Amino acid sequence: MAAETTPAKDPRSGRPPPAKAAAARSVVAASAEPAVVITGIVGRLGRRLARRLHREGRVIGIDRRPFEGRPKDIEHHQIDIRRKKTRDIFRGTPIRAVVHLGVMHDPRASASEHHTWNVAGFQKILEYVAQYEVPKLVLLSSANVYGPRPENPQFLTEDAPLLGGAAFSEIRDLVEIDMLAQSFFWKRPETETVILRPVHILGTVRNAPSNYLRLPVIPTLLGFDPMIQVLHEEDTVRAIELALRPGVRGVFNIAGPPPAPLSRVVKTVGRPTVPIPHAFAATMLKPLFQLRMASFPKPELDHIRYVCMVDDQKARETLGYAPSKSLEETVRAVDDGRWS
Amino acid sequence: MDTARELIRLGDVVRRDALPLARGLFRRARGAIDGVTSTLLGPELEQRLAQVSNQLAPHGVDPFGWDPDYARYAIAGATFLSRSYFRTIVSGIENLPEGRVLIVANHSGQLPLDGVIVAISVFLEAQPPRVVRAMVEKWAQTLPFVSTFFAKCGQVVGVPENAVRLLQRGEALLVFPEGTRGLAKTFQHRYQLTDFGLGFMRLALETDTPIVPLSIIGAEEQYISVANMRSLAKALHLPSFPVIPQLFIPGGQLPLPTRYRLHFGEPLHFRGDPDDDDSIIEEKVWVVKATIQAMLNKGLMERKSLFF
């Protein structure tokens, strides 16, 4: 893999291969083999990706959380990506790709912490990628940047406007990161920038859709049953792996098995549901969320109200991506590892 | 203290007696509706439904949300409306080509029942049966039940992206270029086409889709509107505010049981640049409009009676 990366980049830039340049700068580099840097490696998706990648080559993790149960050959730096130390990692090691999974989406975090972590942190990463001539950058964005809206077409393509922040201010960070990566794509053609916009990722991950389906009684909105797309975490990791191949660049929507109505997805989980009128749910959810009795902020209700589905044709054609899990496997994956 | 005990007692009663009772009633009501639906549908319709389902939704639901298990109730209702209430006569259905097609029709009747009748007629008469897709207003998506109902019956949000995608899938799309202008027509303007929108023609040119003109006779008399109070409608944020005297007569709330006559004309093919100037597109639209108006005039001449 590594051997393919360097020559693939060479003819375009005309500069010495980045791996060599970086290696020359650092005499103390433990290994000359270019590494893949994964930010947010301790998250469940990051761990899965690291497990897949560390067999093939060097993997360096950056996360402010400790990496428990870390395989011996994965290098882990427990630091904040906003700190200067992050630069040392880029300076000291040849790097063949950066996978940015370290996007925070915690509706409880303070707005400024949220914003500086996501936007300032990612800006730093972009700066280092440009400065140390990393040939590949993969950002795991989300289909939520399009936002669930009543006027959405049934399937959104990659060039649809990113309106997710219109009703849900917490998501504006994610939209901003996505836009930063897009402008980086144009500003730095030497780096192959890939933006992945997956639909609702389900599995052992602790994200809103998985948590929603793990509720003991699943609330739905009375009279609303939008079509939903879900994606198994395993398929997400596979899409990232495909994006890491040399030559791949651009924005890709990633979808899983064929879409299904929310009612069918919920039925597959096999837990009782309770339909709630929207006006009531909207008024109740706000205080409940503030009192920490609900883990979903009010604007997330739109996800079980309106359609936000993507067209993944481009990923299928250009990336060679196809989901491997069925709807049942994907939805049931939210209960995996529950009892372990 | 006493109130708390009362509440607990009440909760027990609800849990022990009321809930099972409600559930039982619901199940029986559902069973009754299923029974009525089956008799209304009959074996022929069941077969047609299965034929469409196999083609559209091998996994149970098609990507646009069309759900055969849900749509069967709507089909049963619409079949009753079309066969027994409006006693629809369909002619020229053989003009409907296979694959993608735009069905362009006159719109009228205050309530868009004409859309329902066209959809059910194509489902009942076309060989093989087809699901007609119509474009629904965006705000309908914000209404509970309504949005679900439309989606499960195969109707999609009215945005150009959806129209293009459906035509590329080879589906039949129903368009009323008159829009609400046509729907709100007063009685004295019946069967006089109002201004046509240009969007459908650009869509047809872009996707190289044949246009099948359709004349709907009967819908324009179902509600007799003597006036349309535009300023009041505007103040109430309604698309129109018709004055319909029959609403004040008991039973007049139902549409008049006029006989519907649908005639599908021969498909029209257009060539050109979808991004042409409005004036060039207008000429092509005028051809379609004139065809439909001619079909309407001919149909009205041949019609002997409003109700039979």
Domain count of chain A: the total is 1
| Text of the CATH class of chain B | Alpha Beta
Question: In CATH, what is the homologous superfamily of chain A?
Answer: NAD(P)-binding Rossmann-like Domain
Question: Main beta sheet of chain A, described?
Answer: 7 strands, parallel
- Beta-strand portion of chain B reads 5-15%
Oligomer category: heterodimer
Strand content of chain A: 15-25%
Secondary structure tally: strands of chain B:
9
How would you classify the helix and strand content of chain B by structural class? alpha/beta
Query: Which CATH top level class of chain A fits?
Result: Alpha Beta
Order of helices and strands of chain B: HHEEHEHEHEHHEEHEEH
| Structural class designation of chain A | alpha/beta
Radius of gyration of chain A: 20 Å
Low-confidence stretches of chain A: 1-29
Physical arrangement of strands within the biggest beta sheet of chain A: 3-2-1-4-5-6-11
How does this structure look, described?
- The complex is a heterodimer of chains A (340) and B (308).
- Chain A is of the alpha/beta class.
- Chain A has helices at residues 2-13, 18-25, 44-53, 85-92, 111-131, 172-187, 208-214, 233-243, 262-269, 278-290, 313-319, 327-332, and strands spanning 35-39, 58-63, 74-78, 95-100, 136-140, 192-198, 200-202, 218-221, 227-228, 230-232, 250-254, 260-261, 273-276.
- Chain A has a seven-stranded parallel sheet with strand order 3-2-1-4-5-6-11, sandwiched between helices.
- Chain B is 47% helix and 11% strand.
- Chain B starts with a helix and ends in a 6-residue tail after the last helix.
- By secondary structure, chain B is α/β, with parallel strands linked by helices.
- Chain B has a seven-stranded mixed sheet with strand order 1-9-6-2-5-3-4, sandwiched between helices.
- The mean pLDDT of chain B is 89.
